[in-house]
Specification:
alpha/beta; seven-stranded parallel β-sheet; five-stranded mixed β-sheet; 12 strands; elongated
Length: 266
Amino acid sequence: MHSGPQAESSMSNAKVVKMIVSGCNGKMGRVITDCVASRDDCAIVAGIDLDTSMNGGYPVFSQASQCLVEADVLIDFSHPSALEPLLEMAVARGLPAVISTTGLSREQVETIEAAARKIPVFFSANMSLGVNLMLELSKIAAKLLGSEFDIEIVEKHHNQKIDAPSGTALMLADGISSVLPKEPQYVYDRHSQRKKRAKNEIGLHAIRGGTITGEHDVIFAGRDEVLTISHSASSKEVFATGSVNAALFLHNQQPGLYKMSHLIEG
């Protein structure tokens, strides 16, 4: 390993990845700004937000079409309504895009998939490494227990979260569903149903209150035993760090749709 002045010179010549952050003045956008400010391998060169305050020391544009600043990658942590113009800008400029916004419709997911045929797109309902490990563990458990155990997913978030169930809860349900021999039915509400739980169900339950950052439980309930796989996020920084790492991974990839498993595998 080299040390001394030569090593320092090599580090100083390392490429700094230039990022545009959509939703830069939102809660997650501000956390991403702080996260990037503490690193020397990347920098935010512009932001996109309806609030054009320059809180992070970089120019902020109210619309994607106005942002002409040169960059290596786009991070979107904004609102589903902003997706289409962001992808149009990214495709037009050949700009890799990390899509972290949740609450997207099936049609919007298809738009992401179409864009990924032209540019690199990293798309995940949750940018936490721990949550994605939880997903893999839940899939293993479902393979072994799914035919004998009832599966329920409970998610908890702060009282300002709009979409329910969370994108992460749906990601967990979809992952579990993919390994079951028969496609299950998702059940979101039981109060209007006076009947026994069907075997081929995955129940999804949303709790909203206080300042809960994000908690998810996957419950496998069998005869006389229960297995619960849980994840709890204590701050938004875990999601910010994940999105920044995804951007660093994505900026030199070929067009395609990438997810957290690609980042984990390196």
